[in-house]
């Protein structure tokens, strides 16, 4: 599949070219937006598309959606498409949110009967309250984006296309969006996802494609594709051609011996430590909006919270400190070999860490129906600033059968405020003590066996 555009020097040249079918007017420059793209996206897969600006990512998605026609080749689409190419593109600013939801649903083939069923889901997901009956021109940009996103993902698509549209709303709503995408993935929805966020592509996708100036130069596992994408964008100008050639060869399946990594620029000098950060506290507005409850199989988790070693409930905490993750469980049936767990996840739903009270196959002795347990799981916070979510759960044997007795997804939302600068952009900071780099006199490195490395 291919797509090109003609670029003219003046509007007059464009007009003459159009009316004369190319016989009049100055010649135009030809830009290849897509060149020989050949892709097969299996049903139920999630494919991330990465590339620099102008690589052809948005053009590819528009052709798949049908808003652009290719100049060569064909596109075969099986199923209903819901696209987030531009949030709210089909909204009329003079109409109310309710009216725009109705019109947008009709455009994707949802009949009036099913609209009534879907409207409650859309309204609950967007969470804009009485504004649903006001003209959307009165909405804030965040409210507009929330409603548009809610419509796009709640119309039962077979194929969902997302072009850099996940960073909408506050952090709680973003987590809600990613939780919904996880649900769509598990339901077999095919997702095409364009993003400049390497982390989002790796966390959300099971396959990735690297576009460069309209060509697909590499496809494969997201981690491998992202690694090569970052090698190219961080390559020094003198190394760019060589790195690009290496990636092209890898894309053709050729063996590339002696591959040389190209790194990013060295960061500047570390800044002095900032002033003492604020202590941990409880923010009543920090409430998870993506909480889900598993069906009870003999137990119910009644509450989830974090507290300090001194016993204060908190949800804004500090890196490097110890805290207690706690929850209460009421047992409805007799059970045995019960073990309890907690999981910490990112806004995108990536599992960052977990803790169990016992190894698999082990746990408590017999627990009688009517018992109430308070679970305490101490943890050392090594997380970088950001917003995170906690799951709580327990499993055990009920009537001799091993079952997940209960689980709460995103039962708790907590935050780590940014104070000063961090050493890494990843979720966790593994620094222990003071890092050290030793330079040798004269700029010459000593033999490997004599080099000094201290952490």
From TrEMBL:
Query: Any idea which GO molecular function terms this record carries?
Result: ABC-type transporter activity; ATP binding; ATP hydrolysis activity
Domain ABC transporter: start-end pairs: 19-238
Q: Per the record's keyword annotation, is Nucleotide-binding included, yes or no?
A: yes
Q: Which SMART domains match?
A: AAA (SM00382)
Keyword tags: ATP-binding, Nucleotide-binding, Transport
**Coiled-coil stretches noted in the UniProt entry, renumbered to this chain:** none
- Transport found in the keyword field: yes
Give the span(s) annotated as Disordered: 257-276
GO CC annotations, alphabetized: membrane
- Report the CDD domains cross-referenced here: ABC_KpsT_Wzt, Wzt_C-like
What does the sequence similarity comment in the record state about its family? Answer: Belongs to the ABC transporter superfamily.
According to UniProt, the name of this protein is ABC transporter ATP-binding protein
> Which species is the source of this protein?
Allomesorhizobium camelthorni
